[in-house]
Amino acid sequence: MTVEGYLDKISEWARHLHMVIREITSTDVAACHAVRRRIAGKKYYERHKEKLRTKARKRAERAKLLRIHSETPAQAAARKLCHREASAKYRESKRFRRLAWKHPDESVVRFLAVGLCYPLAYDFSSGILFG
Is this prediction's pTM over 0.70? Predict the structure, then answer.
C-alpha cells in the first residue's frame, strides 16, 4: 500500500471518528482528544517516516559511539548479559504462548493466566511457586 493510500485510509477513519465524537457527551472530552492526537500522530508518522527513521538511526549510532568510548569492559559485559537475559525471557514466554495455542490443556492455560515466565518451578496442583 502506498503512503497516499494509507493516508486516505486514516482520513476515512478520522472522518468516521469525527462523526462519533460529535455524539459523545462532554464527560468524554479527554477520550476525544486522545483519539484525535492518535490520528494526528499516525498521519505525521506516515508523512515523515523516512526522516524519522534516519534521525533514529543517527541517534542510535551516536549512543553506540558514546557507549564504546565511555563504557568499561565490566559495564559492557553487564549490559550484554542483561540483554541476553531479556531476550531469553522473551523467547521463553513466546514459546509458552505458542504451546498454549497449539495445545490448550489446563496446565499451560493456567500457567499463562498466572503470568509466570518459567514454569519449571511452578506446582500446578497446589499453585505454589518454587525457587
Answer: no
